[in-house]
Amino acid sequence: MDSAMPIIDETAIQATLEAGRVSDSVRVREILARARDLAGLEPGDVSALAGISDPELLGELFDTARWVKERIYGRRLVLFAPLYISNLCTNDCAYCAFRKRNKLVKRRALTQEEISQEVRFLVEQGHKRVLLVAGEAYPKEGFSYVLNSIETIYATHSGPGEIRRVNVNVAPMTVQEFRELAAAGIGTYQVFQETYHRETYRSVHLSGPKRDYDWRIDAPDRAMEAGINDVGIGVLFGMADWRFEILALLQHIGHLEERFGVGPHTISVPRLEPAVGSDLAEHPPRPVCDVDFRKIVAILRLTIPYTGIIMSTRENPNIRRETFALGVSQISAGSRTNPGGYEEDEKYASQFSLGDHRTLDEVVRDVADLGYLPSFCTACYRLGRTGADFMDLARPGDIRRHCDPNGFATFEEYLQDYATPGTREAGERAILDAVERMPPDVRRTSEKMLSEVRDGQRDVFC
Ligand code: SAM
Ligand code: SF4
Questions:
Q1: What CA–CA distance (Å, rounded) separates 364 from 211?
Q2: What integer pLDDT is reported at residue 346 of this predicted model?
Q3: Where are the domains of the chain?
Q4: Which of 4, 51, 131, 372 is the right S-S partner for 367, CB 3.0 to 4.6 Å?
Q5: End-to-end CA distance of the chain
């Protein structure tokens, strides 16, 4: 990376924030009208929207975000589960229970057999996508531990199910290691900068390789250089001013778009949650209240309309429900954040506290009752529709010809194989209602694929 061209320009961000401090209703309404063109927004627009406090304008911001979400994603919500394979860590991130100096956590790296058991549990719940998560220290085989674990996950089958996409959230690595990760057949590589504010970053990453801000912010570049087309980035909200963070996030996205012709596949928006042995997590220095959190999701939806937004089970069911409408496209469900947590529950301390403890079946039913369509689709990356190819289909709206039928088919598969009777009833109702509202060609494809699944075929996708 050219050190003369830093990815984040803090002075420019501060100037944009300053300029956006006074924003009148005429300007806000002009920005919201423009957002409906689905072409994204500029940093100055973001700063103006971030400054909204008038309840009426806030309502208009949320209405616009709902409109954009519906236009681009319809009612689909993609579901996944995190799979924590190890909590060994060499870093000392002040907010995390896994940090090296925390003696309150029992350390554990799952064996391949234990990983396989966890995967069987998830598959038997109906999951098709997992996010592999680990601290930054591997057992004696080193980085191969991650590669072996991915192989184990893909090789584990139970009944009619298997995991069809493994996304990965592990420490940044070299280009060569990223190449090996790509060759292992991963979906998305995720790495959150945590905070883009350099001084804050330094004050919370006390020791270990993660203390190097630049090594981390360059990780998506190295991943893309190595051929990983789908990268996920994010901010851990609660450490620096959220307005600064979202403007910095946009600079990061702009940098990736300029260099690779495509930005990140997903954005994650975790807020700091209490974690065993962490005062910082218990008392975030710049907490983000629920209203601002909803604003963050809405503003991101308008600004980067085609980038997926992920909401984890850190948040409680109510906040999750509200943000589905505002722009979230992927959610985790039935999660545990401790290695071995699915088989043995809370025997080993978790990374942070969860806000949503419901099972996958309960989440699916709730989502369907709200009129959304849970999707377990993994078609795009298996058909090579990733990176710029994905965005080329997404921008003109063509991706929905694939996403909607694939969403229906994978949801039907879930309902047939795993759902409780009440969930199946709610799900069939949601499918029926949604299929009827599809354009004729999408409806025909969807009905064909649905009847194939009902006839017993599995892994039907287009
Ligand atoms: N160890 C690797 C790393 O830090 O990049 C990857 C996995 S780490 C377990 C995954 C993410 O958990 C971190 O990037 C951080 O954003 C999040 N996290 C850590 N502590 C948290 C807390 N107290 N509340 C919410 N999220 C937290
Ligand atoms: Fe380790 Fe990641 Fe936790 Fe930091 S956030 S202590 S690197 S597991």
A1: 39
A2: 58
A3: 10-70, 75-357, 396-454
A4: 372
A5: 39
Number of neighbouring beta carbons within 10 Å of residue 398: 11
- pLDDT tens digit sequence for 218-256: 999 999 999 999 999 999 999 999 999 999 999 999 999
Q: How far is the CA of 163 from the centre of ligand 2 (A)?
A: 25
pLDDT, position 2: 47
Q: How much distance in Å is there from the Cα of 328 to the middle of ligand 1? A: 20
3-state DSSP assignment of residue 439 = coil
Would the CB of 205 count as within 6 Å of ligand 2?
no
Assess whether pLDDT exceeds 80 at residue 347: no
| 436 CA to centre of ligand 1 in angstroms | 41
Compute the distance from residue 421 Cα to the ligand 1 centre, in Å.
36
Judge contact between 229 and 261, C-beta under 8 A.
no
Which residue among 133, 146, 276, 351 is best mutated to probe the pocket of ligand 1, counting the most ligand atoms within 8 A of its Cβ? 351
Query: Which residue's structure tokens are 């996403």?
Result: 403
What span, in angstroms and rounded, lies between the C-alpha atoms of 292 and 22? 18
The candidate with the shortest Cα–Cα distance to 399, out of 416, 417, 381, is 381
In whole angstroms, give the CA distance from residue 47 to residue 449. Answer: 44
Residue 15's φ and ψ, nearest 5 degrees, are -65, -40
Name the token pair of 355.
């806000």
Distance from C-alpha of 308 to C-alpha of 341, rounded to nearest angstrom? 27
Residue nearest to atom 5 of ligand 1 (CA): 171
Q: Taking the domain 75-357, which CATH number applies?
A: 3.20.20.70
CA of 97 to the centre of ligand 1 (A): 9
pLDDT tens figures, 18-64: 988 777 899 999 999 999 999 999 999 999 999 999 999 999 999 99
Structure tokens at 432: 């029926």
DSSP letter (8 states) at residue 13: H
- Answer yes or no: is the C-beta of 189 below 6 A from any ligand 1 atom: no
